[in-house]
Backbone:
């Protein structure tokens, strides 16, 4: 998946440079840097979520296109998040400029997927509702759901809503752990007890084992590393 990840990174950086062209004046540097950071970090996570279908992605252009479109949806989610949280002129302008990108990705996903639109819409709705709740009162119970738009990757690549449903809660918990690491890095939570509770819940539910058994071996291994790092920071 290294080649796919590299292609995703180049594509996301290219789109970021369209929204915040270089050379960037001082007023655009922070906003542009956030999109650059997403372009650097997101491909690895997207590829981990797509791992059970890596052979299909390697063989079939339409599967690669699904992954690319999901990456664009993730980029748009960051642009929207910045526009809501920061509400600076540059963020609002980027949101406006990103509309063709977003609608192109969504329309193409509709053409590529055999699933009904409702399955994907539900994930996006859950993302929005969790973000609203977490903004009002941040809590780990929202951290997985606020990233549910990323679950479009396994949903659409599987093409099987029932199979996806069986893994959905485990994937959501994985996103919760990853968000916990971000919350600590950004200083957005000071409740040190959150991390042991999440680690114990991960162990109790055998989240890592279930993901590994279902083909998300890289994600399972990454969660082992993240959990150990979080516990070491306490």
Residues:
């Amino acid at each position: 998946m290294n080649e796919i990840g590299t292609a995703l990174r180049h594509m996301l950086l290219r789109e970021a440079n369209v929204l915040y062209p270089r050379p960037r004046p001082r007023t655009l540097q922070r906003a542009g840097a956030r999109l650059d950071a997403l372009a650097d970090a997101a491909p690895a996570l997207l590829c981990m979520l797509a791992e059970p279908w890596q052979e299909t992605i390697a063989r079939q252009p339409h599967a690669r296109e699904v992954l690319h479109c999901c990456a664009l949806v993730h980029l748009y989610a960051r642009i929207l998040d910045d526009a809501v949280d920061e509400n600076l002129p540059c963020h609002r302008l980027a949101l406006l400029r990103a509309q063709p990108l977003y609608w192109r990705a969504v329309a193409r996903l509709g053409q590529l997927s055999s699933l009904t639109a409702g399955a994907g819409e539900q994930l996006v709705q859950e993302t929005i509702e969790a973000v609203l709740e977490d903004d009002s009162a941040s809590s780990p119970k929202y951290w997985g759901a606020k990233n549910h738009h990323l679950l479009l990757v396994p949903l659409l690549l599987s093409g099987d809503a029932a199979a996806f449903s069986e893994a959905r809660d485990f994937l959501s918990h994985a996103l919760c752990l990853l968000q916990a690491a971000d919350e600590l890095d950004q200083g957005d939570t000071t409740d040190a007890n959150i991390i042991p509770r999440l680690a114990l819940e991960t162990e109790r539910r055998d989240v890592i084992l279930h993901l590994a058994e279902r083909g998300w071996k890289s994600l399972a291994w990454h969660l082992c590393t993240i959990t150990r790092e979080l516990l070491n920071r306490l």
About this structure: The chain is about 80% helix and 0% strand.
